[in-house]
Amino acid sequence: MKTDTIHNKMNLYYTCITAAPFNALIVLDPEGKLYYASLGENITNLKDILVKDFQHQKRVQLKPLSTLSNKSNTSITVDKFMQLLINPTVPQDIPVEIIFGTRLQRKVWQELMTIPVGEVSTYGEIATRLNLSGKHARVVGAGCGANRIAIVIPCHRAIGADKKLTGYRYGKDTKAHLLKQELGEKYSQICS
């Protein structure tokens, strides 16, 4: 992470990716590491959410990606994320830097990243793998809701014990679309 030594802030760069059926707003560093990815239809709303999400990140200075002089590394990440929007089954080898969340939420996100493309896990199964006892499926669900790196940290692959698509930070329709793309014909058998 590079910081501006005068202000002791890390410069991160944001850009919008327009795609169908939804758009994305991503934040990355000059080396191309992804710090943030939000999904939605309206770019203005995504920018408003970005400001709200970063308001407590005092060490971060957000700048438009267009202000970065050398975009060679960031272009690779932007292209890879655009490919994921179009086809979430492509290899997800995008480097990630997590700056949000509690220690438990970060554990949940790390566990989510072990779920392969084309598979799902219930919140309870994820809780069990994290050695969380009792009714900690809700803790996993809350961790998913706090995730700020869509698709790459695949919260959409977490489903309810009854195989229902429960809440998703970016909307249930977006979750259903991503899973239909990833699961193909298996979608109707796995998710109800």
From TrEMBL:
BP term (GO), one: DNA repair
Swiss-Prot/TrEMBL keywords: DNA damage
Enzyme class: transferase
Pfam families attached to this UniProt entry: DNA_binding_1
Domain Methylated-DNA-[protein]-cysteine S-methyltransferase DNA binding intervals: 104-182
Superkingdom field: Eukaryota
The protein's Enzyme Commission number: 2.1.1.63
Coiled-coil regions listed in the entry: none
Gene Ontology MF annotations: methylated-DNA-[protein]-cysteine S-methyltransferase activity
Family recorded in the similarity comment: Belongs to the MGMT family.
Name of this chain's protein: Methylated-DNA--protein-cysteine methyltransferase
